[in-house]
Amino acid sequence: MKIRAFTPRSVPCRCVSASVAPLSRRTLMGAVASTVLLRPWERSVAQELETYYGKATPPTSYGGYGGNADETPKYRFDYPANWTFQSVNKVQKGTQGIDARVYNPRNRNMAAFVIVLGRAGEDDKSYKVTDVEGTFQGFAGADYDIQDAVMSATATSKMEREIDGQQYFDYQVDSPVAHYMATITVKNGKVFAFFVKAPDRDYEENKPMLKNLIQSFRTL
Fold first, then answer.
1. Assuming Cys at both sites, which of 80, 103, 147, 194 could form a disulfide with 140, CB separation 3.0 to 4.6 Å?
2. Given phi > 0 = left and psi -120 to 50 = alpha, else beta, which region is 193?
3. Where are the domains of the chain?
4. Within 13 Å and on the Cβ side, how many CA atoms surround 211?
């Protein structure tokens, strides 16, 4: 959840009539405490999300419109409504496997992207989904900060979960360079990998939101 900060508006002063009894010290202190607790710039604001449906089409289908071809969606994920969708071209799809990418326009290093590969049998062996470092290195070509994050990692983790009979492998890499979360699954002979990333300085504030994005990813 992101805490939005803003400057409070000034409120016109209201004079108190002499006929009004003065507030007791206890009442006054209570009012001050309530004001502090309800300061608007400390209120947590719910993040509005949108859902993207990806088609995982071949590189020849990409020409600046990403996975929005008129085909049946193969996956979906949520992302903040104020983020920007970046069109994927044939080179990015063909050489890096990127199928979709969204980013925070105020901080382009905070992003989410999907990689789809069509060689599940081969990729399962080379990426070794039980090995966090090996798996992330296998996708480093899609985001160049991945390799630096793995090399300088201060912590890594992996877990498995099953949703509607589909097995997902969740990963996390924490480093001074960037923090990455990822979920990877295989369906119909294809590898689907969904990544979210955030710079170290922005990670803690956005961690709940990033985790929600990862958990929203589903193959269809």
1. 147
2. beta
3. 12-44, 48-219
4. 9
